[in-house]
Amino acid sequence: MPTLAEYKMQEPDNSQVEELKDLEATEENLTEEVEDLGVDVPDIPLPSCQDAAELEIEDEFTGAYKFAVVGVGQGGSRLAETFWKLGYRRVAVINTAPQDLKPIALPEKNKLLIGGSGAGKDRKKAEALFKEHREDILDFLKSTFQMGVDRILVCIGAGGGTGAGGGPIVVDICHDLCQTIGAEKTSSDAKVGAVLALPSKSEGSRVKSNAKETAQVLIESCSEGTLSPLIILDNERIRHLYPKLSVNKFWHTANTSICSLFHLFNKIAAQDSEYTAFDKADLDTVMSSGIISFGAVPVKSSGETVEETDISHAVRDNLKKNILANIDVNTGNVAACVVIGDKDALDNTPQESLEHGFEQLTRLLGEGSTVHRGIYHTSKKGLVVYTIIGGIEAPEQLFA
User: Fold this and answer.
1) CA gap 220, 209 in Å, rounded
2) Dihedrals φ, ψ of 328, to 5°?
């Protein structure tokens, strides 16, 4: 039988008129039945069906870990800004004073202002503000970091009120976030670390008191195994390592020195080596070891060939020129030692000389220590020894 639509395409004769009427009536009844079955749905704004992968933020490099970085206070925000410049894109900064947030070179959506009138170097005032805005901070970090975070690093300037009081609260909030996104499976599965910048001696007793209290809180968390790694920077020590820097260059150099070393190991652990590779599992061992220290020293060769003593001197110099405060790196129990040089330098370096340097580091750290190794080539001229020392014992006294 022809359909109603087919009938309408032609002129029906008298014999088809009745049949056409029957078809129209049948179709009208069917339409009414369908309309009767429908529900009255109000207009409700529905979330976008975006794939989770589309929400994942990508860094501008390939690293072993996808780190998220949050800076608290002015000093912490400067450290976070340095990570942003290195290509990290899960970066956020938090402050209590708008004038301290304004100069930080991050997108405005990556900045959060708490309070708005500053903390005036009052640690307790900042702590109360951050506790009051705990849920706001958590939502901000969720929005800024999105999915795919492996570890979170909280950068804290310990001398000012905002960093000193708000930093430990943000560390706690980051644990909540890590558990929400599945990065931490248990309370002892520490995927949150911290960089703590101690003030110089000239900043006064109140600043020193702030730093001391904040350091004690973080060191305790580190000892309990809920915070790792913990990197304690000493601005006084940095000042002695770079004595001739101008005011404009001092803070940039101080921040870059630690952030670049952190970044180097994260990148190296994701790269293959035709010699000896330092891999992600090696990096995880060090990052999970508690208090850590970084170092980098060029190998100064006494001749055309790099001798054993050249490497061993560089390793010893590396341990001395750390930027940690009053901490004995010889108490560490795990280390990474990576040698990077151009082709010519590596061609002139006997394997025996490198082995001597690695073995010396093992002896310096003591019995039962582990040293992870890596050898890589680069286009930059020269040979450089890079180290991370981990599992360092907490100092009894940070300040002299």
Assistant:
1) 17
2) -95, 105
Helix H or strand E encompassing 72: strand 67-72
Distances (CA, A) of 346 to 92, 312, 342: 40, 16, 6
In CATH terms, 56-228 corresponds, of 3.30.300.90, 3.40.50.1440, 3.40.50.1370, 3.40.640.10, to 3.40.50.1440
Q: What tokens does 40 get?
A: 């009255």
Could you tell me which CATH number the domain at 276-392 has? 3.30.1330.20
What global pTM score does this model have?
0.83
Range(s) within the chain of domains with CATH label 3.30.1330.20? 276-392
Task: Please list the pLDDT of the chain residue by residue as tens digits (400 residues).
Answer: 555 455 555 555 555 556 656 655 555 554 555 455 556 666 666 555 444 444 678 999 999 999 999 999 999 999 999 999 999 999 999 999 999 999 999 999 999 999 877 777 888 999 999 999 999 999 999 999 998 899 999 999 888 889 999 999 999 999 999 999 999 987 778 999 999 988 876 666 778 888 889 999 999 999 999 999 999 988 777 777 777 777 777 778 778 888 999 999 999 999 999 999 999 999 999 999 999 988 888 888 766 788 888 888 888 887 776 666 567 888 899 999 999 999 999 999 999 989 988 888 888 887 789 999 999 999 999 999 999 999 999 877 766 5
